[in-house]
Design goal:
The structure holds two protein chains of two kinds.
Chain A (H helix, E strand, L loop, with lengths): L2 H36 L1 H15 L6 H7 L4 H15 L4 H11 L4 H12 L7 H23 L3
Helix pairs in contact in A: 1-4, 3-4, 4-5, 5-7
Chain B lengths: L1 H18 L2 H38 L2 H16 L8 H14 L3 H19 L6 H11 L7 H9 L9 H33 L14
Classes of the chains: A mainly alpha, B mainly alpha.
Amino acid sequence: MNIFDSFVEGAKEGIQTVAFIAPSMIALLTAVGTLRASGALDALAGLIRPFAERIGFPAELVPMALLRPVSGSGATALLTGIYENCGPDSFVGRCASVAAGSTETTFYAVTMYFGAAGVKKIRHTLFSALLADFTAIVFSVLTVNLLMRN
Amino acid sequence: MSYVFGAMMAVSLLYAAFSGNMSVMSEGLLDAAGGAVELLISISGMLIMWSGFMRIAKDSGLIGRLSRLSAPLLRRLYPDVDAESDTFRDISVNLSANLLGLGNAATPPGLDAMRRLKRQSGSDTATDSMVTFVLMNTASIQLIPTTVAALRKSYGSAQPFDILLCVWITSAAALTAGLISSKILCRREKWKQSYRSPSRRCASSDYSNA
């Protein structure tokens, strides 16, 4: 096998991935940037903060946690917002990174796989998948708290 | 997606008009569009490089080896699927490609596996194995969170990969929660059905190994 050819083949796929996500990323990053500039995102976080702080949950994480199962690029846009505001190595930045790295775009996968197979009644799939997403958000805060406090 | 995008734009517009933030918002809009392009360029190097290395891993037979390693675990997760069948092979290739973060390589065998499972069951209701399979694809089992690391690096993280251990523990916990809850709900469904009408069998037991 030729490792150079393999790498080039893979890199081609990588470029396709970038090209594939670029338009929606630009659209959603713009939307999130606009949302932040308008002050609405801060207002939302401010609304949630008292409840979130009571259980020791960083409020900045809430919008991303809500968007993650629905839109991958939307959540990425919010993630970069957190990096910009708090820094990628801050507590919130790390929690958000772990949460983003441990979850998938749930609705996309459910729709694609069941849609392709022509299965209509999906029983409790969505419930269990969203429970997994919720667990990931909780565990991202827990693990960063326990393992990365400095 | 339209709803997400539309809602974000509408909320921004309304909120900015309401709070007198219009000029700040329109400036933010222009900045964000330019920033998005810059961000994409800055993360694409790392993403493309990883895709290249992962392709080498795939071509060197790593996926095949991972598939064999994962067989004992998959046999327990999919008791209804014959370990010698094409369906089983597709499921294990899908899993291995997902572990390596090769979304492009994971999807085609995944779709084949779902179609075969559907052909076996012959009904439009999801079987236990289908639910398990989709759950393993909605959870992220990627060993190296490349995109997140690339993003962190472009925002000046000192060690973009220092979240690795936390990501592994969190992914494992999430997948476990999903699978256990699914197992419990399957049992409950079966118990309920046998309780109500013993003649009606659960959809998941309506097919045998093929």
